[in-house]
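Internal ticket #5521
Category: modeling
Description: The requester needs a full-assembly model to guide mutagenesis choices. All entity lines are attached below as received. Residue total reported by intake: 635.
Assigned to: D.W.
Attached entities:
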Amino acid sequence: MSEDAITAPRDRYAEITEEITRIPLHYPDKLGWWICFGIALLLLLTFFVSATVLFWNGVGVWGNNIPVNWGLAISNYIWFLGIGHAGTLISALLLILNAHWRNSLNRFAEAMTLVAVTCAGLYPILHLGRPWLFYWMAPYPNTMTIWPQFRSPLTWDFFAVLTYLLVSLLFWYIGIVPDLAATRDRAKKRRARVLYGLAALGWRGSARHWRRWQQSYRLTAAIAVPLVVSVHSEISLLFAAGPIPGWNSTVFPPYFVLGAAFSGFAVVAMIAITLRHVLRLYDLVTPRHLDLLGKLLLTTGLMTAYGYWAEVFDVLYAGEQQELGTLMDRLTGQYAWSYWGAVLCNFVPLQLLWFRTVRRHPLWLFLIGLSVTIGMWFERYMLLVTSLYRDYLVSSWGEYQPSFWDWSLFVGMLGIFFVPFLLFVRFLPVISASEIKEALFEDEEQRRA
Amino acid sequence: MREPSPHTEAYGLLAEFDRPERLIESVRLARAAGFRQIDAFSPFLVEGLAEALDFRDERVPWLTLLGGVLGAAIGYGMQVYTNLDYPIDVGGRPLIAPQAFMLITFELMVLGAVLFSIGGMLVLNHLPRLHHPLFGVDAFHLATSDKFFLVVFSSDPKFHQERTRAFLEELDPVRIELVEHSEEPE
């Protein structure tokens, strides 16, 4: 048996079921999990403290002000949302392409999407100033007899993110139902049986059920791919639709979508490596998966690099005075560190992925993923701040420094990310057992044919 | 397909197999022998099983389409209505701006399609249904692990406890069990 096989070719349906359902039922390293969960709870506490301070005092506790009125809150919003997109992309795109190797990655990638989109969605609400009035974004008959402005990207954003959150939740949930049923049937304790039983909705694997399940699962996947593209294109229009030098460009939608996929694949690779190590899933998440993730990361990375180049070319070709000024600000100005930080972290270590040994090496791939995640954070920050701090009028030039509460909210937001994700790792099947078994059966059929 | 009512003598007969292709084969044989009220259970989606049962149901894709069309219509209609109801003139730009309305139209189309698709799948599958006579059979918990089951319902016109059991024996299953009703007749 070579280590390259996605799953061993032997008949081992029961073994796979056992390996995956043992994690929620008999979690292997409880102490390690509690330590991580404790840290995550501390982060969550930081979030609640920061949010309370923010609500008590207003957005004045943050560093943003005119002219940079979109600070860390919005750059982090885009960063988190972009990371989230990779979960949907990796899962839906590869399901449609019938790529069996996806089965080991899709479940936790989708869970990562859910938590990342939640983090992202909280940011604009917190940024509102009067967050308790966020529902004003929704069109509902009201005593003011007014409606949202539907020709504005800000209103599009509300619909896009809400749809995306709901669709990714449903897609993840119907994918996990058969495995929840498997966990229910393996559970010994009554409480576990009842809880997994409720969540599994009474799934019993009827051929008729499977057929309808497959129809709706595949259709949802097929719809989710253009949804991702639409959502992140829409996010880019929050910028591109504004008459701000450095933003008002048609390059933005594809540039944002690719950057999103790039940062997300980096995070998926990091999570895959960590879970594989912690939960000892070496035969389900193999070096071949890491290799393929590395290739995806390299491909989307090079496309993102092309986006950087296209953006610069665009400015030079148009030759517009203010755009040139913003380009120079980015390359040499006060916030040049964010531009060069993005270029360095995103594209320099990435080149190591040309080598097969690096792609298959967990630690190297993890470090490159980390570098890309940080690099893409620099990029989102750079796009925001370098455009806003100096626009047309010299009188409206200003500076931006994130305040302590900006940073503490960001740190706290990691708690919003990790607390639910750790609960998912601890209590739910992190890998799709039913789909791995299906792939195994189909491979066997093919070999026989 | 209707399940047997609690008035019949038993719910059905269950035969267990250890390989997916054996289940497909047995389903084919059962259908060839004239059984119509049968179902097959597997831990994962087995290609060809639904075909062997002659199960063709395209309602989920059609529901998805319906949801998408409805979502798009509601999305676009909402934007047209609200703009006419409370006109905001921005520099004389058109009030009804199809390009600007497309994104929300698309998002609500997606939402409608997915809600109808998944909701329709659950409704047509009669899920959630937390209790089921099959759960009363001890071995049935393997239907989510590595075993494959064929059930002949007692509502089948050809169903007869001994004769059907004899027929199932010929298929050489791992075991055969009688599935009792889980509810009393009303």
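Resolution: model delivered.
Comment from assignee: Helices of chain B lie at 20-32, 49-52, 59-85, 98-124, 161-170.
Ticket closed.
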